[in-house]
Amino acid sequence: MQGGERYNSIGNWLKNYFGSKTVKLSIEAGFTCPNRDGKVGYGGCAFCSSGGSGELSSTIEEQIELLSNKWPDAVYLAYFQSHTNTYAPVSVLRDKFYSALSDPRISGIAIATRPDCLDEDVLDLLDEINREHFLWVELGLQTIHKETSDMLGIGYDLACYDKAVSELRKRNIRVVSHLILGLPGESREDMFESVRHAVNGGIWGLKLHLLNIVSTARMNEMYHDYIPFESIDEYTDLVVDLLEIIPEDITMHRLTGDVPRSILVAPQWSYKKRTILNEINRKLRERNTFQGKALLNNEE
What we know:
The protein is an alpha/beta fold. About 35% of the residues lie in helices and about 15% in strands. It has a seven-stranded parallel beta sheet with strand order 1-2-3-4-5-6-8, sandwiched between helices. It has a two-stranded antiparallel sheet with strand order 7-9. Strand 3, helix 4 and strand 4 (about 135-140) form a beta-alpha-beta unit. The two termini are about 20 Å apart.
């Protein structure tokens, strides 16, 4: 862990790797999703917004223009975020990925996708890119519990996710998994079980998302009065406890989740991203704890 932080943040990891502040540019590449176009289902996963969880995405040019004054010496990664970014013919994927990589200001790419959209030809393309460029691939695990997954309408099972991780790791491709905290019906132990499964699967990075119920997602109709966590204090206590069981070499890409306030329904405080992160760091210091501590002490 770098810079005195008590967890292995992706920001510090990237700064150490590239030697400079590194910024992800969220790219809208025009993809859709098999859970929207009818191949798997319609309407997307219950938690997913109409923008495919990429409301802040735009073009490389637009984002560099916005960020260059703030970070004039930054390294940039193109982040294919919205919807499912391997859900297209390989010729289309090749064109979009290499188009981003051909920009001299781009030092690598990150690709968010579904485990069921990694056919052999897609894996071969990712392998090819990974041999010459910096790459990571993000997979939405969300939960390991079938009842919850079925409720969310995700459309693939845990075995599919596990296979995708295995195939990517065979090719030495960095894998980042997504988990959602606060899903309806899940207990504290359920969330711990999902984290344990993810971190024991050979992943390189992990995103812990605070469940945000947004007005443009089906979950808003299904659980309109549901509040995932009553307070910042309750949520941050959980995150600190979870960090203690996550191996210290796993990069932490997210410890909360934020969406535009214009579509946020609950929890109403979740837009306070900086406050939430500050509280997590405060509690880590107060407890004198850190990522992976429970593993070192052989306790939970």
